[in-house]
Structure formats: C-alpha cells, structure tokens
Design a protein that fits this description.
By secondary structure, this protein is α+β, with helices and mostly antiparallel strands. The chain has one helix and six strands, in the order αββββββ.
Length: 203
Amino acid sequence: MKCSKCGFENKDNAKFCTKCGGKLIEETNPPAVNQSSNNSKIIIALLVVIIIILVAVVASFVVNNNSGPTSTNDASNKSIKTSQEDKVDEGNSQNTQSVESSKSKTKSWQSIGSYSGSGSGTQKIEVPSGRIMVKLSAFPIKNYADNHLYVTGSSGTGGVDWGPTSDVETRSDSFECTLSSSETFTINYYETVSWEVEFFRYQ
C-alpha cells in the first residue's frame, strides 16, 4: 500500500504508513453516494407524480369535452322533439278545428220525422223551429172523386188530390217554410190506398 504523503511502500494490509505514520486507507464517503441515490429516487418519484397529474388532467378534459356536447345535444334534441310535438299537436288541433268548422258550415236537410198510413183520417205533428221542408205523396182508391192528402200549418201548406176524371196514380208535392218556434201541422188524408209524409230540417 503506497503512502500518499511520503510515497513509502507499506504492506497491503497496513493502515498507517510505517515511515511517516500517515493514514493509508482513506474513508470513502458513502453518505454522498447514498444522498445521490436518494436524490435520484426523489426525482423519479416527482416525475411519476407529475405524469399521473398530467394524465388525470388530460382524462378530465377529454371526459368533460365528450359529456358537454352530449348534454347540449340531448337538450337541443329534447327541445327539437318538444317543438315538433307542439307543432304536431297544433296541427292536429287546427285540423280538428277545421273539420269541426267545416262540419258546422256544411248544412243539409236532415229528416226529423216520417209518417205513413192508408184510408181516411187526420194526424197532428209537432214540428220544431227552423227551416223546414215537407215532402208528401199518396196513391188514391180507384174511381173516387175526392181523394186527397193535405199537410197544413200556419206557416205553410201543401198537398195532392184527384178529381173524378183524374188518372189513378201516385202524386207527390213538397213545400218549405221557416218556423220561429215549434208549430203543429195537420196531416189530412181521405180515401187513400197509401200515403207518406216526411219532415226535414236544414241543419
């Protein structure tokens, strides 16, 4: 072992120089090595922590971006569906109103009573107010001079009859009247094989 101070060659296992008494084996500095190793471990741990934080930030950003537009799209889709449903409901309502209005505007003659019989006699019929039309027809007994069918009321009258020289055939008549209130009509028939009277109201 060579002394670093005087250069004297000593035995390999000598701890001090035989010539100058200097210390031959210098103590290594393991704490420095350990400190360097510890510093490296700290740096690696910090890097791992930073990487984890970056990954978490990026993942959060991606999740927020994906969920944000979806919720917006869902909301917009819901609003679109709602507006479409409102339009459909509005359209159905308008169609219903138009159908109802067209029904109310489209009036026609509606039968409110039909009466028939034969022979001779009278009948009284109560007719409601409104625009009224009466249709009547009869077939007489043959070879008789005074066969008839009359429908009479204070607002309107109609009827058919046959004379002694008239053809024996079915005859018809009709008339219209407007009643401000209900009214009683009289059906008078004489020597008929068959007769029929029908009342209509415009509604």
